[in-house]
Amino acid sequence: MSHEHHHHGHGHGHDHHHAPEGVEGSWTDPEADDPLSVSRRGFLATAAVVAGAAAGLGGAASGLGQGVAAAGNPLESINPYDGRSIFLAGDHHIHTQYSPDAQYEVETQVANGKKYGLDWMVITDHGGTAHQKLSIDKITPEIEASRKAHKDMLIYQGLEWNIPGAEHATVFMPPGRSTVDILKAFEAGYDGSVLRDRGVTGDYEPYAIEALRYLDGQVRNKRTEIALMFANHPSRQGIDSPHEIRNWRDTAPRVAVGMEGAPGHQAAGIPLASGGPGRARGYYDRAPGEASFPGYPLESYRTYGGFDWMTATVGGLWDSLLAEGRPWWVTATSDAHQVFQDTRVQGPLDYETNGTRGPAVESGAPISTYGDFWPGQYSSTLVASLGRTYVDLMKALQSGKVIAVHGRLIDGLFLRVRGSKNGDARGVTLGGRTWVRRGGDVEVQMVVQLAGGENAVGDRPRVAKVDLISGPVTGAAGDKDTFTAPQTKVVKTFEVSRNARNLATFTHTFKNVQQPFYVRVRGSDGKQLDSAGNPLIDVVTDADPWQDLWFYANPVFVDVVA
Question: Which residues neighbour 281 within 8 Å (Cβ) at sequence distance 6 or greater?
């Protein structure tokens, strides 16, 4: 994946929400009367281009779906360490009055995100028939207005996609001439709620695969420069089965790139005794249903230090993907619908008729049953981007230069992984891939940027422990429903000195390396750990998110060559 600085021509001043009549693959295609014709026609129109592009793929691009050991040129580094990237904080999961269960104006969410230090945000209202037909056209000018009012913020228009056969996902693209058309066509053809409304029955999983192919086709056909998908709250209902996640990743490795490592709705865990909702962090208080994957244990339906079970379990589902050499990234978001202690309630309009609830209405008193934080108030996805542009930021997300952080536990992490004498001396950073000759050493250097100020509740958080986690890359699992990686473990735990001021630096060397492996880093405030130093399962009704802070950084893969 190259990291040249891209200058892209997506100006924001022009009108994005009126497609010319009869554009093939757009919502205004006059022949689009079959429920799937919009997306199918758009996809088929690009099929020849896709086939041609696929035939010409080589190197790192083809390796994305093959696992590290088989990928392209083994001496090619991905995400080389350069020290030039800047951390941009953001949130890819935010709702407005254009969702039936939310209430805020776009500008309210953006202004709060800015207040709490965010640099980028994705507006992701729920997919559905009313949203597709009514809401997109109403929200588009509001997003444009917020972009003009906040020129220092990157404000993306996206969708919370009801994945056919599974949970929800964020889907988004940079601003561009076709962005709104693509979102409309994608939602019309492939949103699970829309499919249900249209009477589609049977196995939904193939629709999710076709949807991702469609998005990838839009990129290959240059209708958009990049498109990304992140699976949201993946363990909440147990319906994102391991094989579905693998299939999404394999189908469109440039589009389906990750999942929420930590769900939103973190304020829901604040206990009743503290004036909170007294629910579960993330509203992870569910149990298996008939659509749930039967292999998941009961404890998978809970959070651990606010993080999803798939992410928080050492040797769990996330690690099972990484052990195959599959790049798959984790994030942290607000999922902001209704914010804890806000005084407003939903507007009075009927959503199905209007595509909006209308502006929120003042109630006059703080509401303690709301379970969300404002964007950036608690959760943050830090992205090491080469520049403050829409496409640069998305390319950094796509390539895994990402840290998921709660409560401003840290402000950044400069990770450098490099082979000794007979390896890649420059090394690589978050999301990267490097190499060493068999028998060589690999050095991991972690420079943790400690919190430079107070978080949203006035605390200056302190990271107490940093864990270095590693496991071998063993290739594709024989069973696509595998969700364990038994050889992955915490290699070393570093204690952060209480005297540390701005930076804390740690180094570990893997000696005499014989097989491909990966490393990843997590850290905590050390307040709630089990005897092995892992996060505790969050107690439903009693889990103050501010008293249990974690960060999770994305992995680096190390290849071994003879």
Answer: 263, 265, 266, 268, 269, 303, 306, 538, 543, 545
Buried b (16+ CB within 10 A) or exposed e, 328-340: bbbbbbbbbbbbb
Residue 68: which pLDDT band, with cuts at 50, 70 and 90?
very low
Burial group, residue 497, by CB count within 10 angstroms (0-12, 13-18, 19+): exposed
Distance of CA 84 to CAs 5, 118, 358, Å? 11, 20, 44
Helix (H) or strand (E) holding 149: helix 136-149
CA 5 → CA 393, 412, 434, distances in Å?
11, 21, 21
> Does the global pTM surpass 0.85?
yes
Selected from 2.60.40.10, 2.40.70.10, 3.30.70.141, 3.40.630.30, the CATH number assigned to the domain covering 410-561 reads 2.60.40.10
For residues 168 and 546, what is the distance between their CA atoms, to the nearest angstrom? 26
pLDDT in tens, 301-359: 999 999 999 999 999 999 999 999 999 999 999 999 999 999 999 999 999 999 999 99
- Give domain limits for the chain: 86-395, 410-561
Give the distance, in angstroms, between the CA of residue 60 and the centroid of all CA atoms in the same chain: 22
d(CA 148, CA 153): 9
Q: Which helix (H) or strand (E) holds 138?
A: helix 136-149
Instruction: Report the candidate in 17, 21, 9, 20 with the shortest Cα–Cα distance to residue 141.
Output: 17
Query: What is the spatial distance between Cα 1 and Cα 336, in angstroms, rounded to a whole number?
Result: 32
Tokens of 19: 């497609």
CATH 3.20.20 matches 86-395: yes
Backbone phi, then psi, for 257, in 5-degree steps?
Answer: -115, -5
The encoded tokens of residue 132 equal 């597709």
